[in-house]
Structures are given as structure tokens and as C-alpha cells.
Specification:
The complex is a heterodimer of chains A (343) and B (193). Chain A is α+β, with helices and mostly antiparallel strands. Chain A has 2 domains: 40-230, Clam (outer membrane lipoprotein receptor (LolB), chain A), CATH 2.50.20.10; 235-341, MucB/RseB, C-terminal domain (Phosphorylase Kinase, domain 1). Chain A is built from 6 helices and 21 strands. Chain A has helices spanning 2-25, 37-60, 132-136, 142-145, 216-223, 329-338, and strands at residues 63-71, 74-85, 88-95, 102-106, 109-114, 119-124, 146-156, 159-168, 175-181, 187-193, 199-210, 230-233, 237-238, 246-248, 256-262, 275-280, 285-292, 303-306, 309-316, 319-325, 339-341. Chain A has a 12-stranded mixed sheet with strand order 7-8-9-10-11-1-2-3-4-5-6-12. A 7-stranded antiparallel sheet of chain A has the order 13-15-16-17-20-19-18, with helices on one face. A two-stranded antiparallel sheet of chain A has the order 14-21. Chain A starts with a helix and ends with a strand. Chain B is built from 8 helices and 2 strands. By secondary structure, chain B is mostly helical. In chain B, strands 1-2 form a two-stranded antiparallel ribbon. Classes of the chains: A alpha+beta (343), B mainly alpha (193). Chains A and B meet through α2, β1, β2, β3 and β16 of A and β2, α7 and α8 of B.
Chain lengths: 343, 193
Amino acid sequence: MKFKHFSLLAIYLWAQAASNLVAAQVPPLASPLAVNSAPAAREAKSITDWLSRLHEASKRRSYIGTYVVSSGGQMQSAKIWHVCEGTQQMERVESLTGAQRSTFRHNDKVVTFMPEQKVVRSERREAPGNFPGLVQSADNQIAEFYKLKAEGVERIAGLESDVVLLIPKDNMRFGYRVWTEQKRSLVVKLQTLDSDRRILEQAAFSELQLDAPVKLDKLLQMMGKVDGYRVEESALVKTTASAEGWRLLTPVAGFKPMSCYKRPTSGGALADDPMQWVFSDGLASVSLFVEPFDRQRHIKESAMSMGATHTITRQLGSYWLTAMGEVPMSTLKQFASGLERKK
Amino acid sequence: MTTLQSPFPELLSALVDGELADGELVVQSNALHSDWNSYLVIGHALRGGAGAPLVTGADPAFLQRLNLRLAGENVGLPVLPVSREGLMALPNQPAANEAVFRWKLVAGCASVSAALIVAWSFVGTPDTSTISQLSRNPAADQVLVSSPQGPMVRDARLEELMAAHKQLGGSSLQAPSGFLRNAGFEDSQSGRR
């Protein structure tokens, strides 16, 4: 009897020793047991640092390149000039596909030249397509919803680039494969991936000249040459969802409200203009457009996808909702079912 | 293939090509005559067979009889009376590749692709004039688009909302592409104003 107890103790001690030996041989990053708070905090810091570096690179670097976007069976390309001097950022985009169009962005001012119509549209936009505040803020939750995985090195547009996979931790968002130029961390290629890692959309520089001699004052001069053009000012009216009488009853995991606007349309009263309520999880974004229901136009609730951008429409009483974003359809449905008119 | 029998093929060849003067070569035997005919045929063929067909070495009496016989034959294709029943019966005939399943797959894919291409031609970025028309007649501007989630009505208004989403949405990763895609969608917006 005593020997039996001794043998059980011996087996236990042997198992402990063996597991310690194995643990000692596994590198700490590859350990599947690294679930305690310290590694989680490290992971959060690493993903935030990585995203901040990317964001800084996209702002601070000067470059000239040809950018190609392939989405929903369509391919578009454009030549981009980007320059940063001090706190000023300037960008020029010349479309190479479809109608001729030149877009200039100086900080938050965007001017678009449409030479065929002899029209210039001028508008103010918040930093287009990015939410640096969300990435850099202390309460950013990106690491809660995505994890990073290094996938090696590849050459893109003639530049050695690190390949990183951003894997979503739930099925509420898509994954991304990101190529960043090794020295400057500029994103040179980006793929949006569905849950089976199939490519929904991709964009890449086909050629890129980093630290190119782009002159900000020269681009500013070009931006101001509107002689012979009809200038149209676009007016976005900033508002809040609450002021418009809407609320999201159930928050959607990871998505925070970023901004809310009313967009005046031609000939319509302001009350009839669609409200655009924008949410983001730091990487993906969702827009909720709410407008009065129109029996003629809003025939049938439906769902559609174009590349990574998904859309659903719903009738909410006497209103019509169009939810749109680079997220799975199920996420849009959560937004749609959570949105309600305040009593 | 004709086998040349003459002991002087080079001489004969030169004679046929007109490189020998008359009388330089004497035709001495039947074998040489046969070769002579062969060279005529070869020469005619090498010159592309232009002009009247060359008939050599054939019995003229035989040719005459053959021509008479051919004239007497009804060589035209028989014209059969076409009945309605016959026409109806034709589709029921199995195709030669009926049993090969991959052909059905190919045909199916081709039909779907053709349908998608036609649909896409409607969906592709509309030009300004189209947009203007759409704005005037909202009921007629809607296009049914097939997507993995099922058919959806896509119209100029939806294009406008999409442009607005690209403008204010996006992420730090997608900054350049969001900006570019936005630029790509701005046509539809401009047309509305």
C-alpha cells in the first residue's frame, strides 16, 4: 500500500520535471501557455506600437508612387505624390483609370479637379480614412480584437518588405495581410481577408520612390489654380446621433462611434438629408446612413458585397437604414438590429 | 508517288525547264516518255497548278466516257421535305458531348460569366450623363445586382452613400486606398450636383 502511494508520487514528480524541461526548450513567444496578463499587455503594446509606426510613416514620409486597388472585380490605379513638411501634409492623387481627376489634400482641405466637367469640388475632411486618435489613445482595444503574426519578408515594388498578418480574434471583422517597407514602415501592400483567408480586396504600390523630392509649395500652387473652373463647396454638417434622435441600443464589440454628419443633398430639406454615423474598431469602419423612407426608391431590404465592402438595407419604421462597412455581413446585421429611434 | 524510270533524269529535267535547245535530247524509249509526263505534272504542281488542269498519260477515250457518265449522274444533295415533327424531334437528339460532365460545367460557367458581364456593364461607374438621367427619374435608375448575398438594388443613391463611406470611413491601414477609392467614386457624386 505504501509502495503504491510512493509510485504515484514518483510519477507526479517525473511529469513535473518533464514539463519543466519542455517549457525550458520552447521560446517564450511560441509558448501556447502565454495567456497571463503580462504577455497580453506586451501583445497589446506591440500591436499598438506597430500600428502607430505605420500611421506615422504614412504621414511623415515623402514619396511618389503608383497605387493599384483591386476590389469587387474592378481595378483602379492612381499616381500619388505625398509630402510632409513640419506639421503640414500634402497629397496629390491623379487617377489613371476612368475619368480624369486630380485630387489635392492639404491637411484637412481636399480639392478635386474634374477637367471634363470644368468643375472643382472643395471640401474639408477629417484626416481621410484614418483614426490616429483611436490607435494612439490609451483605451484602444485593437489588441483585444486582432493579433499579429509575422509571415516573413517579400519584395514589393522593388523594396524589401515585412509581411504581417493581422488575425481577427472573433468573426465580427476581417483579417489583413500587410506588407511594410522594412526601413520606413510604410504600407506598400494590403490585403483584406475573409474568415477563410480568401482575398476580398487588395491594394499595392506597383512602383514607389521613397523620400522623393516632392515640393509642398509647388503642390499648393497647383491646388490653387482654379481659373476656368466652377468651384463647388461641399458642406458637411456635423451633428450627433443623439441630436438626430438615434441610439445604438446594443454596442457592437470593438466598434466605437467616431463621427456623425448630415450631408446636404441637392434640392432636399436638411431634415431629409441622410445622417451618416461612423464607427470604427481602429482598423475597419462602418457607416450607418439613416434617411426618411421613400416608397418609390426603397423597394426591398437587401444585402450586397463589393470586394471587402458589405452593405445591407433595412426599413426602420418611417426611416430607411443603409449599413455599410469593411466588415462581415453579420456585423452589419448587429448594427442594424441595435439601432433604434429614441423615444 | 511517281518513280522516274529514265537513265537521264537530269537531262529531262533541264529539257522540261526549257534549259535545253530543241534536238539536244532524243526521246528513245517509252520509259523516257513516261518520265517526260511526270516532269510536266511536277512542274505544273510547282507553278501552283495555274490554268487548265493538266491531264497527261490518260486515255482520251476513257476520259470522254467518264465525263459522259458523270453528266448523267445526279450529284446534287437530295432535298428532303422538312416536317414540323422533324424539327421538334431534333432537340431531343443527345449532343455528342452529352455524356461528358465537364462540358456541362464549362457551359454553365460560361452562361453565368456572360450574365455577370452584362450585369457588370450596368453596374460599372456610370458617366455623368447617366447619373443626371438617374437623378431625374429615380424609379428607373435602379439596377438589380447579383452579389454573394443575393440580388440587391443598386442605384446612384447607393453609389453616393458608398462614396461618403469611403470618405469618412476606412482605417490607418487603408489610408491611401481609401483615399483612392474615394477619388474613384467621386464621379457619381459630381453628377448629382
